[in-house]
Amino acid sequence: MAVGGREFRSLDELRRYMAECDRCPLGCTRRNLVFGVGDPHAELMFIGEAPGEREDVLGEPFVGAAGKLLDELLASIGLRRDQVYIANVLKCRPPGNRDPLPTEIAECAPFLDEQIRLIDPKVIATLGKFAAQFVLKTSRGITSLRGKLYRVDGRQVIPIFHPAAALHNPGYRQVLFEDFRRLRAVLARTPEQAAEACAEGREVEPAREGAPRVVECETPRLFDLE
Ligand code: SF4
């Protein structure tokens, strides 16, 4: 979905366009717009929910305690944050870290769609409920979505809990590390192996007109963890 009928040539051009964005009320309360960071040609893109307090101050996603855990998770599969791209569904902080509103997501969505188009990642890892629901175009909860692999617009999508969940409930920590091992297995696939892994599957929900088809891949062939 282009932004106001316009397609951008680069992330920098999109970032400049968004600098003064006030398409939703969060544009009036943010300190900094949190556009995203990382390799603009990354094979792996992470999508989180929205900036928190520290992200709002620094203008960078995942720089608080959840960001530290994300760095640890990345290191566990041999990656650094400059080798991936990290963005959020919302680019401005909801006051008091409340959940994003549907109207805010709808206004901000074209920017994320444009980021995905420009980066063109092979794999998208969504972090938490809102990102999973946005990318997979579903209202299903994160607990039923995680642990599975999906195919959207030719990309593999793997929903993961938000790292912040492990800060509140340490039991999630191990689940996160397991999901990152699965992510590593998905990343290691050749395009042919990826297509084969998702050759069979079923639509998550009937695609709306003009929307991409979202397929849940056959679970037993998903992750091949040795
Ligand atoms: S959240 Fe998105 S749509 Fe709302 S003001 Fe920020 S950049 Fe604009």
- The CATH architecture is 3-Layer(aba) Sandwich
Q: Termini separation (Å)?
A: 39 Å
Tell me the name of the CATH class.
Alpha Beta
**Number of discrete domains:** 1
> What's the total number of strands?
8
- One letter per element, helices H and strands E, the order comes to HHEEHHEHEHHEEHHHEE
The name CATH uses for the topology is Uracil-DNA Glycosylase, subunit E
- The secondary-structure class comes to alpha/beta
User: CATH homologous superfamily?
Assistant: Uracil-DNA glycosylase-like domain
Report the principal-axis shape.
Answer: globular
Poorly predicted regions: none
What is the percent of helical residues? Answer: 25-40%
Largest sheet: 8 strands, mixed
Q: Residue-averaged pLDDT, rounded?
A: 91
Walk me through the topology.
Layout: H1 11-18, H2 26-29, E1 37-38, E2 44-48, H3 53-58, H4 65-76, E3 85-88, H5 102-119, E4 123-127, H6 129-136, H7 142-145, E5 150-152, E6 155-160, H8 163-168, H9 171-187, H10 191-197, E7 201-203, E8 214-217
Parallel strand pairs: 2-3, 2-4, 4-6
Antiparallel strand pairs: 1-3, 5-6, 5-8, 7-8
Explain what the structure shows:
By secondary structure, this protein is an alpha/beta fold. The chain has one domain: Uracil-DNA glycosylase-like domain (Uracil-DNA Glycosylase, subunit E), CATH 3.40.470.10. 40% of the residues lie in helices and 14% in strands. The protein has ten helices and eight strands. The chain has helices at residues 11-18, 26-29, 53-58, 65-76, 102-119, 129-136, 142-145, 163-168, 171-187, 191-197; strands at 37-38, 44-48, 85-88, 123-127, 150-152, 155-160, 201-203, 214-217. An eight-stranded mixed beta sheet has the order 1-3-2-4-6-5-8-7, sandwiched between helices. A hairpin with a 2-residue loop joins strand 5 and strand 6. It is globular, with a radius of gyration of 17 Å. It starts with 10 loop residues before the first helix and ends in a 9-residue tail after the last strand. Iron/sulfur cluster (SF4) binds at residues 18, 21-24, 26-27, 33, 90-92, 104, 107-108.
